[in-house]
């Protein structure tokens, strides 16, 4: 379980990005993080693995407070956290297999990583993961020859190669078309269910979040203003998260259709209010 207690981040400029954020994410739960641009979503994710140093608070993964470990110990602890990035963060000139194996760098010696000579067990693991994400036949293709959806699948496989206890996912569908976005979110949710992995997904597409995540946390000015199930998002909660707007799904002012995209596996439709929320967070 991940436990975040009173997490805060204030930058040297005096700007406060996070204030008193407290969230528990139990084993197997997928939490969607939503909010307008600048609300602190990416900062929160980066504080968890300390790509950004928190100013105050605790971040406990199991019995370890990640906010308190030394720089030397942090390298070891980061093996426990898989990160999936919006822009994939692949090494374009390397093959798909080599990119996936880079997820094992924290487990091998410097010289093995330098020469990219990984143990046979790691290579077998990488092939299994590529098969799981549907890229087994692409193992020897260069990363820069892949489509956006394929690159994101490589990023997922690389994160899983760490054998993580937690997944952090930063806007995984922002650069993808709607169909590919659903495929990627479906893959993430299926893998988390299979492995009972907790995950935090920073996602700007509110209807997509409603379709795939189990719980939504809304941030506004670095503070939690909503924490509940996807169906709990209504006119008032959307206003709390994104600010004043006409969230009435029955009004058509010529800018929005009353109905946009599918939001649940049962085929219900998202109101225009959620489309406006998506635009506000983009």
UniProtKB/TrEMBL annotation:
* Region of interest: Disordered: 241-282
Membrane topology term reads:
Peripheral membrane protein
Q: Where in the cell is it found?
A: Cell inner membrane
The protein's matches in NCBIfam families, at most eight in alphabetical order, are given as:
ABC_phnC (TIGR02315)
Q: What is this protein called?
A: Phosphonate transport system ATP-binding protein
Q: What SMART domains does the record point to?
A: AAA (SM00382)
The alphabetized UniProt keywords are: ATP-binding, Cell membrane, Membrane, Nucleotide-binding, Translocase, Transport
Q: Which PANTHER family match?
A: AMINO ACID IMPORT ATP-BINDING PROTEIN, PHOSPHONATES IMPORT ATP-BINDING PROTEIN PHNC
Q: Which GO terms describe its cellular component?
A: plasma membrane
GO molecular function annotations of the record: ABC-type phosphonate transporter activity; ATP binding; ATP hydrolysis activity
Q: Name one Pfam family in it.
A: ABC_tran
Entries under Gene3D superfamilies matching the protein: P-loop containing nucleotide triphosphate hydrolases
Ranges of Acidic residues composition bias in the record = 242-260
Q: Per the database record, which ranges form the ABC transporter domain? A: 2-246
User: What's the main place this protein lives?
Assistant: membrane
């Amino acid at each position: 379980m991940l436990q975040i207690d009173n997490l805060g981040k204030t930058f040297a400029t005096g700007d406060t990005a996070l204030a008193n954020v407290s969230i528990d994410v139990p084993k197997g739960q997928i939490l969607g993080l939503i909010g307008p641009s600048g609300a602190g979503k990416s900062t929160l994710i980066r504080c968890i693995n300390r790509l950004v140093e928190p100013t105050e608070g605790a971040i406990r993964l199991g019995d370890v407070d990640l906010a308190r470990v030394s720089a030397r110990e942090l390298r070891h602890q980061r093996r426990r956290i898989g990160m999936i990035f919006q822009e994939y963060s692949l090494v374009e000139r390397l093959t798909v297999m080599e990119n996936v194996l880079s997820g094992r760098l924290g487990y091998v010696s410097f010289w093995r990583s330098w020469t990219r000579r990984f143990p046979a067990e790691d290579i077998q693991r990488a092939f299994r993961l590529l098969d799981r994400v549907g890229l087994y036949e692409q193992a020897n293709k260069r990363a820069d020859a892949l489509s956006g959806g394929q690159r994101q699948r490589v990023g997922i496989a690389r994160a899983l190669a760490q054998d993580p206890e937690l997944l952090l996912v930063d806007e995984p569908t922002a650069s993808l078309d709607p169909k590919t976005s659903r495929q990627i979110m479906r893959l993430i949710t299926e893998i988390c269910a299979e492995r009972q992995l907790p995950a935090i997904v920073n996602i700007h597409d509110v209807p997509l979040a409603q379709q795939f995540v189990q719980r939504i946390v809304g941030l506004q000015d670095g503070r939690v203003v909503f924490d509940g199930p996807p169906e709990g998002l209504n006119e008032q909660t959307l206003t709390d998260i994104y600010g004043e707007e006409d969230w009435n799904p029955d009004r058509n002012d010529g800018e929005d259709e009353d109905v946009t995209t599918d939001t649940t596996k049962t085929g219900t439709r998202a109101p225009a209010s959620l489309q406006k929320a998506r635009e506000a967070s983009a």
